[in-house]
């Protein structure tokens, strides 16, 4: 039960000062249902509260009950903590807590560990009745050692049994205690955290978990001979820490929207869970519709009635909403649509990350259905973009789409506590008389904008229709009218684009390679670009938040770089794959629209491995392109 | 709309709405189409109930009947085929001050809209719903509908349809929280009007199944329905749809039925002998989803800000 | 009742030989329900049977019962007949039969008539009881004369009343008779035509209509002093004449598909009407589903069971099918989807033509859902492409999309009578044992192709799923597997592309301007390009049939022209519109993908007027671009 | 699958299928999940009926229960959420030789799939349908379902759901052409097995509503249902679902019910006192849409060619 000799050399003896690290990546992997995520989230929260930068990624099996002790069953969490702001999941883990010897393989398949990774593994399997389990445990340990991991066997359940009857249930808090000790976390904060997560449970349960926490802490103190410390940041502002779906939920509240109409779908649902919990006290309601079609129809009805609404979903839900989304564009109904992207096509990889709904969002509706599309890059943006989207939806009388993904949805990150502003909130439903002589579609010929009448406004009466219609909202099959009104709806995008600035360039204004990206990959890409720049490579990056209309000035920016490429998490043919030529290569989604927009030969790197990109992978691609 | 209002000669309060106030344009339905009769009845209802046009919303799907909102001088929402219900629920949900009507056809409601229909019944939002059942697809020019009788010759069933028709009354009565379920016929304006009026007075999802004439694509059916008085039976009950004695006499058959008796209602709906006109079922004090929707209206920006700040405290570092 | 003097000079006196024309455009316009379309279609059929080239376009109001005697109510048909093959609707009409004086305005709004257009107008309105009608009639006639039309008043109903009680019903056949006389049509063929269209009616009805035909013929002979003849083509092959939806229906039968699963929607429905009528005798069935989702689900079920099926719809139907279409791509279910495009977005212009579903078809599904997409350019192709699509669907184990539109759907055109080939028909459902050792997704690594097991095949058992899956069809969340299988599905497009040839160039191989087009615009564009070439302009055109994958070699072809532009019927911002720049212009749909594919600055002309393009309009655009 | 078949020791015909032949993989449902019991029962049915695995197809939507096809060694189609019915109808339509089962959950069938469900009942295609009703969304981790009881605490209804539950039996019995409608419970394997067996034997859309345990997200409900024997009543009739006397005795209550009596069936379904297990309704000789689908199978290429040529003649010039 002691640390291997090699490890000993690396770690300070107890009693000495803990090793100072600038960052560490911790993983907890287990069978599903063993509470690893709760443990990791708490650890992340405590770390954030102590002033560390934090990023978490959940490791989620797609099945409700994957078989125990299998690599596909790996469930858990990664927590990257640092003394600076952490923007992504990083590369290989430094320390792993494994509840059995099989689940690490699910992660090894994804190259999550490397030589030197410390692995704290539950030791009870060595004493299991079943021969085959004992054997497989021994075999795995041997293999882990061969792979160069620093394996430490930990009698987790055995220790827990001293306190509770069902150690499988309490183990996670014991592990939390152990981690707190290893990383010199404030045990008082850990206690408070436990009280917070179990706030709906009985005191007995809370106390038993606190006992486990202390036991894990004590065990580590007594049995592990290394200790770390990660210097906190100097905080001059208040921070909050939450995951992307919670941030979206809070953004909905702060936007003043009062209706969230949804149908459950992974990985979007937890945003509505959050809202269902707290929205009512902020004057809002969550409507769980019978399906996604009804969910968006209900939201559109609400918007029409003056209460601009939000609908939150993922790929298959977007597919079902297609027809209504066309109506929203045609009839100019303000509406916020959040797409928490997952792996596709079809049911695909429901719990995994992908950025492959971009084209479907941009072009999914038949006919010409212009719309505004934004993508969040950080959890902080998950909050703020919802507020912005509601405003744009109302002032541009249009559906606004927000693209987030499974990575942001479940990741946790601290960010500046928002200072709530009065003007974030939608004003009350306008019931003042409608201005005489103003038609319900009184488009401004310059901007395409118009104000909409709300039921209850005297003088504003009109019938909304998805048929072609004129300024009075009346059905019109007149050819010129259809041309004209199509132009006006399109014009709103040009108008909106005038409010946008060209993206800021991360790095030099010109160079050998420009990386263009969008969405949750920001952190990894900027980290990798930073590393590359340090190595002297002439690479810069821009990260787009607006996809429709695209941010201005891209062609000009591209012209200053020898090569331009996007890095995305979606499908593209590899340029050098067998049988793939310039004439038939299928490009990553952003790359494709950038090519059309700028006529620049935008290359791309992308994959559909269902994983967030690691900075290492990005760096490798950068180097490859620059050397080509 | 300009000049003297037609019934301005009568001594009426200043803000009294007249029929004219509810009329818009010329209804573009065929001559003899039952939709005209429903429109007239609804406009009359609006006047009788003195509904404020700006507080009234007609929501529809797509179909001949779904053109209805365009002919009402009220707010309107002429949306997508089969999707009037969720839109109407979304409108009413947080706007208890609006009076919301739903207009739907047999294809719109019972075919493509079936899922939304079932669930709208259960939500029991305070809507006045009129299903125009002409047993055919009108707008797309004669295809079978799920309510078409066996043997209906249509463009998609040139040798006659083969499945028994869905009965909208039976289906509605099978759904939890059904609260007002009535049947009437467009060619009996008095009965239809009384039915729509009772539906409008009911709090909850008031479902009016209207047998509707489509002389263009269902001429024989129209002929049979309107000429064969043997089939039709008037449901008589003080708590049901009541018409004047004169009108009552025009029915060849009548039968008693207590609208609080849902089992009886289901039997009436299942009957293959007669078409019963009247109130099949009315349940009081059922759960209304819009009551939930509107339960927390009016939270102020200050309260929201305080609530959010409390949330940030929870998530604070 | 006699021809104006100017006209007299132009037309030959009766008794003299009829004037020989190389082509003429005839329109019949009326209130809805007056049978103008039946009349026109018969006239077209008779003309085609006499060896003329023919093209028809229906004029359809969107309302079931538009108000009578209004411009929006204009219902009718245009028939262009020529002594050569006719490929499009042409420019202005030469002769119009109008049932009242208001409906022509619906066409005048669309610039359908010009100076010299002969207008044969129902004269009864001059004697109407209503003052306002008499006045408006007189006014319109005056206006028509001022516009330079050759107005001839014709007592249509008055003449019909001599034979039938309800002249409004019989008038159309009387007009047919009149037209037959004017255009020297064979009256025997006209009689046969009447017998054919009224074949389900009683003899009384047939005879009464034949009487009306003869009466109209006789009246024209006696009262009109001009007569035309349009030389027939030399036919060395047998022809058939039908509209595009009928051709699609026959294509379905000839493809061997036995299931057409649909939900009614304009302008697609008539294809299923045709099939409903005749399919059963060819062993097929039409399933009218409860909605479009169920329609495509049923078709997919049928395909899965071994009977590759077709589903036929239009824009809003495509929207609803989105989710299932993603499944078909992911699970590799062969399926033929016909999209008869109409005006969009949303309910849009249900009866009007547009080509604006291209992007939605290509990119509508979330995730990466590769597919094969073809577009018919002619009615003949409406037949043949269905057969091809079924074959591709089966051999590439993929959904195949066919894009047609309202113009092809209702237009009539003669084409070579197909010689039915045995191998067009799908083979019977394979129930032989599945080859041992072959997995259900035994992808060929070179081509991405695989054979699929059909229920009933022993040894082939698998569970189809829309989740990520491996070669055994088993659910797999393995990152490499998802990358690999996505690559394999994508590869099928590259494989298919290798079977395609670059498009043939209409005109010189290089020049000043290349027009690129797709779909039903072929005829107008080639006619216009031909005219431009005759004027010495260096313009050529290519017309794409394959949109996904795109036909090969486009970039190389484009490089030989100074300018490249698409001409399409969908929305694009005009390049010179206020506030529109290269950076924000929204391009026509094909132009957009060509830009991305070739990086050539592909310009576009497009509109959403709901009308087929006339050669004149195309010619004008060509000249504008060349002069720029 | 290799080696000696478990019951090979018995003297059985050469091609006799044993349980093993229908099993595939390890079912990934939670311990105590009712789905396991249904799987076992269905595999037993297959063996009893000696269904040819290659002629058998299991079709499902999305949900915990919809994973079912993956655990059957037969053909399977694990499609989209709510869309099993149209797929199954499409499969069976022209393949009368296939034995098609449908597996669906309460969210899959009664919420997103409601429209398809209603119409599938009417089509009355020969399918054996099992609705796994755990009154909750399992796969997506505890959201209310339309069948959830009032007050159900879930992640979308943290303060309890507010609408009365949809009753799948009532809805089904309200749809035209309903032909076999039964209810059973997964924790009564004998009754469940008899029910599934009768459903499979019925020609037409055989609807089996299975009360299904989800101990993870509905532990109290499971506890109540499985422990309170007072609520449950066995429907006893020779034409109904019959179980052995031993099993019969395990029921505390039983009641007679003639399954041809649809009005009675509807009353049973509407009863708020008891949960009745058994055959509520069976109608014979109802229209089967798949009979129409298969009525013209086997037309030869020659015949098709002749037919097409005749068409070309019609359209010929
Ligand atoms: C998604 C979609 N599918 C199909 C259509 C075409 N469509 C319009 S109305 C209609 C049916 C009309 O029948 P019904 O609802 O009975 O109304 P009616 O015209 O008889 O009043 C159909 C199929 C459509 N507009 N949208
Ligand atoms: C279009 C679509 N919407 C939502 C989902 C997410 N989803 C998967 S299963 C499910 C509900 C599962 O509940 P139920 O049908 O009752 O099955 P159970 O898991 O309880 O067996 C949902 C909402 C999806 N897969 N597809
Ligand atoms: S087609 Fe029928 S339903 Fe439609 S307007 Fe005409 S009569 Fe009415
Ligand atoms: S969550 Fe419930 S329904 Fe799903 S497998 Fe577990 S016990 Fe069964
Ligand atoms: Mg109808
Ligand atoms: Mg469930």
Strand order of the largest sheet of chain B: 2-1-3-4-6-5-9-7-8
- Tell me about the largest β-sheet of chain A: 6 strands, mixed
CATH homologous superfamily of chain B, by name?
Thiamin diphosphate (ThDP)-binding fold, Pyr/PP domains
Pair with the biggest interface: A-C, 94 and 94 residues
> How many helical stretches of chain B?
11
Mean pLDDT of chain A: 94
CATH class of the largest domain in chain A: Alpha Beta
Radius of gyration of chain A: 26 Å
User: What is the overall shape of chain B?
Assistant: globular
Task: Give the low-confidence spans of chain B.
Answer: 1-6
Q: How many beta-strand runs of chain A?
A: 22
Q: Identify the strand order in the major beta sheet of chain A.
A: 3-4-2-5-6-7
The CATH architecture of the largest domain in chain A can be given as 3-Layer(aba) Sandwich
Question: What is the averaged pLDDT score of chain B?
Answer: 95
What is the CATH architecture descriptor of chain B? 3-Layer(aba) Sandwich
Please give a quick description of this structure:
With 628 residues, chain A is α/β, with parallel strands linked by helices.
Index terms:
heterotetramer, A: 628 residues, alpha/beta, Pyruvate-ferredoxin Oxidoreductase, domain 3, Rossmann fold, 4 domains, 6-stranded mixed beta sheet, 5-stranded mixed beta sheet, 38% helix, 18% strand, globular, disordered N terminus, B: 317 residues, 9-stranded mixed beta sheet, 11 helices, 17% strand, binds thiamine diphosphate, binds iron/sulfur cluster, binds magnesium ion
